[in-house]
Every structure is written in structure tokens, then in C-alpha cells.
Amino acid sequence: MVDAFVAGAAGNTGRPLVEEVHRSGASVRAMVHRPDDEVPGDPEKVVADFDDVDSVRTALRGVRRAYLVTPSSERAEQQQRNFVDAAREAGVERLVLLSQLGARVDSPVRFLRYHAAVEEHVRKSGIEFTFLRPNLYFQGLFAVAATLVEQGVLPAPIGDAAVSAVDVHDIAAVAAAA
């Protein structure tokens, strides 16, 4: 039995999660999209594609707990629903889902609606779950660092709204605990 499965193991939150699980001594299976994708430590690495449900089913065999994150795209909702179904079929006991702050089915923002729809699908699946709902990664601020320093503003269409940010390593620590 594999203790932890990490989808997106070479990504922003997956990489530090693999490190966190590895440090805990638990066994980890790291899902990547390409065989040459690098992941930290020495996890069992499996190549799977969210658009190939059979590859996801195979990757999830023998897994107790799984972490789910997909790239943000127009296919993300269906990819995540398919993953949840495959996890249920594989007997996964707990699913940790990287969702989004403000996820609501009635949101005017498409990706917040799909996060809410996936959360509801997870609730109905019967799998124990934890939803993580960060807003902005501190690491994402590097892309706009020059503007922040030079102009003292975050270039985003948010008016004077407050912004919350979290380090991806903190997300990984919470995901590992869950």
C-alpha cells in the first residue's frame, strides 16, 4: 500500500509536498506528465495524464491518500472529476484537493465555479476529504516583483481589495498533515 499519492509532483505545490511526505518517512508515489520531469527525493514516480483516465486509474492502484491539483485550463473541472472517480474506484481513503479561495457555484469567475463543482463532486464521492483554498502564492509575486518595488502596487484587477498570500511550502505542510 502506498501512503501518499501526489498529482502534479513536479509543480508549485506538488514538489514541496513530495519533500514533506518524504521527510515524514511515508511512502510516496509521484505523478508526473513526462518521464524526465524531476521530483525531489526518491519517490516512486509514475507517468500519467489527466486526459487519459486509464493512466490515472493505474497510477492510483494501491494508494491510501491522494493529493489532487491539475493545471488550470478549460479541461480542469472534468480532469478533476475523472480523478475523483478513479480514486473512489481505487479505494483511496482520503483526498486532499487544492481548490481556491472564494470557490462558489454562483461565482462570476469561471475557475471559482469549477473549483466549487469539483468540491461538491468530492463530497458526493464518499471519500474523506480536505479542501485547501489558498488565494495567491508568495512565489507568484516574483513575476511582478519589479512593479511592486517600483510602483508599490500589485498589478491586478482588484481595486483596493485586501490580498492574502501563502507560501507553497506551507500548503505542502498542511497537505501532508491531512
The helix-and-strand class reads alpha/beta
CATH homology-level superfamily = NAD(P)-binding Rossmann-like Domain
Number of strands: 8
Q: Major β-sheet, in short?
A: 6 strands, parallel
The CATH architecture can be named as: 3-Layer(aba) Sandwich
* Cα-to-Cα separation, first versus last residue: 18 Å
The ordered H/E elements are EHEEHEHEHEEHEH
Order of strands across the main sheet: 3-2-1-4-5-6
CATH topology: Rossmann fold
- Provide the low-confidence segments as ranges: none
Portion of residues within helices = 25-40%
Round the mean pLDDT to the nearest integer and report it.
Answer: 94
Using the CA coordinates, give the radius of gyration: 17 Å
**What is the tally of helical segments?**
6
The CATH class: Alpha Beta
Q: Which word captures the global form?
A: globular
Task: Explain how this protein is built.
The chain has 178 residues and is an alpha/beta fold. It has a single domain, classed as NAD(P)-binding Rossmann-like Domain (Rossmann fold), CATH 3.40.50.720. Helices cover 38% and strands 19% of the residues. It has six helices and eight strands. The protein has a six-stranded parallel beta sheet with strand order 3-2-1-4-5-6, sandwiched between helices. Strands 7-8 form a two-stranded parallel sheet. α4 (110-125) links the parallel β5 and β6 (128-132). α1 crosses α6 and α2 packs parallel to α3. Pfam families: NAD_binding_10 (PF13460). InterPro entries: Ergot_Alk_Oxidoreductase, NAD(P)-bd_dom, NAD(P)-bd_dom_sf. This is NAD(P)H-binding protein. Residues 8-168 form the NAD(P)-binding domain.
